[in-house]
Amino acid sequence: MHCKSHFVAASCAALLLLAAAAQSVDAATAQSGLQPGGKLIELDEDNWHLMLQGEWMIEFFAPWCPACKNLAPTWERFAGVAKDVKVQVAKIDVTTSPSLSGRFFVTALPTIYHVKDGEFRQYRGARDGDALLYFVKKQQWQSIEPLSAWKKPDTIHMSVLSYFFKLSHTLKDFNGRLQEEYGLPTWGSYALFAIATIFVGAALGLLLVCLVDFVYPPKKSQRQSFSESQDNLAEGVEDLATEEIEDDGEAEENEDEQRESEEEEPEDDDDEEEEDSEEQAGDLASQEKEADSEPEKAEKPEPKQAGDAAPEKTEQVRKRKPRKGD
To answer: Where is this region: Disordered (predicted)?
Structure first.
């Protein structure tokens, strides 16, 4: 009897040890993201860095996607045969890992990526098991151009984009919770988000202004109180009004001077006309005198001496005085 009791106790202890070992294996499997059998790996926001080492085939899916549901059996079979070519097969649920969909910039479902030592290529071929196996076995991925440096998921800017995707998913869940649990209408949740957006934008703007003021402080000459700025503004307005008044006075003086000059111009014209008429009368009188003296000179010619040059008649032409223009 004692032997039987010892045997039962030993068997119970062995069963307990086996149960504990099974639980530890299950826990390790859950942590590593492996499904039972170790064929298909589930990656998320915490362990996605595993794909940066080795060769991987990654599928982005969503439970509500019909095409993803059709691909699921083929993807599981492919994961079972891909171990022969040393390729690890994984899947990522974009509903539980929205940041990864932003990091890889997933715009359609399902989306398949081939990853080889940190180089990312998008698979666009057929979605059957033979085509997938042929793609990795014959290394057809070498003919595909990898993602450029600024599109690589492990860069800093793509990490920032992933946080925005995660934030949008969180806000969407919060909106659904407001409507389902608290009974808030749709317009009420939208109004709440609008008000929150305004306040957050104002706070960020104020923070940005303070940061810029701290990094690039203004000069002492630029710092002035509100009252000083108002006084300077009033002085500027007064100076501007004074200048306008002075300009108006100068314009009036110029107009008066123009009027006086226009009045004086007709008198000058009359004087010039009188002078011209007098000059013309004097010219006529001188011409008549010359005409009278010419016959007398013709009757009494004077003897010419040798060597003396004959005097030449010079006509005196009197230039008229030019008229001033109007």
So the answer is: 243-326
